[in-house]
Amino acid sequence: MHEMAICLGVIQIVEEEVRHGSFSRVRSVCLEMGALSHAAPEAIRFCFSAVAARTVAEGAVLNIVELPGVAWCMSCSKNVEIAQRGECCPCCGSYQLQVTAGEQMRVKELEID
C-alpha cells in the first residue's frame, strides 16, 4: 500500500514546516491530488490519521482536493479531461492521448495554531 508511504511523506513535510515556523500544532492539511496520481483518496484519508498520531498533526483534518486528469489528443488536437489512463478521447474516440495534468500530488496549505 503506497498510500502509507505518501502519508509519511506528507507528515515529513508538515514537520519540516514546524521546524521553520513558529507554530506547534497543525489543525488541517490541504492535499491536492490528481486523478491520475495512482493513489486512492479513501486510502490516503485512512492512512493519514494513523501516520499523524503522536505528531504535530495528530487530530488534524485532511482535506483532499481532487484535480482532473487532462490529456492532449494527438488526433483532434484538443485538451480533454480523462478519469484514468487508457481512456479514449471524449471528442474523437482516439486513444492517442498524451497526459498533460493530473499526476501531481502536493501539500497545498496548512492550517496551524
From TrEMBL:
Domain of life: Bacteria
GO biological process, one term: protein maturation
Keywords assigned by UniProt, alphabetized: Metal-binding, Nickel, Zinc
Binding of Ni(2+), residues: 2
One Pfam assignment: HypA
Binding sites annotated in the UniProt record for Zn(2+): 73, 76, 89, 92
GO molecular function, one term: zinc ion binding
UniProt cross-references to PANTHER family, sorted A to Z: HYDROGENASE MATURATION FACTOR HYPA (PTHR34535)
Family statement drawn from the similarity comment of this UniProt entry: Belongs to the HypA/HybF family.
Role summary: Involved in the maturation of [NiFe] hydrogenases. Required for nickel insertion into the metal center of the hydrogenase.
Protein name: Hydrogenase maturation factor HypA
